[in-house]
Structures are given as C-alpha cells and as structure tokens.
Specification:
alpha+beta; 14% strand
Length: 245
C-alpha cells in the first residue's frame, strides 16, 4: 500500500461506516520517518493528541512533551514514576483498592523498548504523507463491530481476541499492541481517555496494523451491500415486535 492508497482507503472506511471523525494514522518514528506538515505539541497526553488527529490535525509528540507518565513509559520515552510503579497511584485515583493490583497491571503492560521511538506522528489517515504503522479508529461500538468482522474475514475466520487492562486504551490497547503483535486490538476505553478527551460514553477504540487497512476496507464494501444495511434496519426485531403487538 502506498500513501495515496492509504488516503483513499481511509476516506472509504470513514464513508462506508459513517464515522463521526477521522481514522487516525500513527507513525512510531525511530528517527528515519519524519513527517513535515505536523504541529509539535507539548503538555498533551497521547489520547489528547489522538483526539486532535481525529478532528483533522496532524500533530507530533516527543518524549519531553508527552503529559501522561504511563503513556511515556509505554512508548519507551521514560520510566514509570514511583506512584505508578508501586500501584499506589491507582489507589489514589480510586481505580484499585489494593496497590499490588495496580503494580501488577503496570508490570504486565505491553511496552516498547526504551528509546526505540524518537517521536510519534498522528494525523488523519486520509491526509497521510507517509504510510503509517497503525490505524486507530474511535467511534460508536456498532461501527467498530463491522471493522472487527471485516478483519476476521481477512484473517480467514479466526476469532479476534482483545487484550486490555482498562488502562491506556489509546496508547497501549489501540496502538502498541497492534504494532507489536501485528493484529487488531479492541478497547472499551479507560479511566484516562474518558477523563481527558471528548470520547463519548457509547464510543470505543480499535487499532490495527496499517497493512490491513486495504483488505479491511475492501471487505467493508462487501458488508455494506447487504449485511450492514439489513442489520441496521432491525428487521427481525421489527417482526418480533409486530408479532407481540
């Protein structure tokens, strides 16, 4: 897939599903893949930078400018602060009552090697100037369901698994896991992103390797011919309601 195909597929994916915001392309730049038309942001969490990209901007995060310490560790930018490393930070947030639980959650966090990534570029995938590593989509659960079904078809019918700690939904669940494991991953969201961004109560996230954007979109076109409109029409429910009525 070249950059023009990436943009075309991203536009089609948004149109086919009726997404309310842009699919986001993410480049985990090791220093060899610069993006020129991007605004360097500081004091932003990763999920907040993702929000700006969903809204149409191209932004770049560097180690010194990322505001979330958990995301900074996940991307290999910095070590965990003491409060998170011991689990006491999650107790203070009211997330867990036992610090050992919080400690284990961070010990099991998928993460990149330290200094593997120099900066992170996030942009509307439709406007990509480089082919991204990962595509992240945040929207209503029903719309994401069709992406999961399309990815299942691309994988030959193998069941799709999801991995989450209900922490770090945008950075770990929707970006790092798809990047490291080369597969789609879903997340219901997390305490942090729901506090820090405009994600709605009924919205969730999915990330997948950018190499799957074309095949997933191609099968979404197939689903849009029959399965998608029939499901959304709720014909079986209407018949049940009529019979009960």
């Amino acid at each position: 897939m070249d950059v023009n195909q990436c943009g075309s597929y991203a536009r089609d994916l948004k149109s086919l599903l009726g997404l309310g915001s842009n699919p986001v392309g993410v480049i985990l730049d090791d220093g060899t893949r610069p993006v020129t038309n991007s605004v360097l942001v500081a004091g932003y969490r990763y999920c907040q930078a993702l929000m700006r990209a969903r809204r149409g901007e191209a932004v770049t995060l560097e180690p010194a400018g990322i505001a979330c310490p958990a995301a900074a560790r996940a991307f290999g930018f910095k070590g965990l602060p003491e409060g998170l490393r011991t689990g006491n930070g999650l107790v203070s947030f009211g997330i867990v009552s036992n610090p050992d639980v919080g400690k284990t959650m961070f010990e099991h966090m998928p993460r990149l090697e330290e200094r593997r990534v120099k900066r992170i570029h996030l942009f509307p995938a439709a406007l990509a100037e480089r082919v991204p590593d990962v595509i992240v989509v945040e929207d209503e659960v029903e719309r994401l369901m069709w992406i999961v079904l399309a990815s299942l078809h691309v994988a030959g019918g193998e069941r799709v698994r999801s991995d989450t700690a209900v922490l770090q939904a945008a950075c770990v669940d929707a970006t790092i896991i798809p990047f490291l494991e080369d597969r789609p991953n879903m997340s219901f969201g997390c305490y942090g992103c729901r506090d820090a961004t405009d994600v709605h109560e009924g919205e969730a996230l999915i990330g997948f390797p950018a190499r799957l954007l074309g095949p997933i979109t191609d099968h979404l076109e197939y689903l849009a011919r029959k399965a998608m409109p029939q499901s959304r029409e709720k014909g079986a429910f209407s018949r049940l309601a009529k019979a009960a009525g």
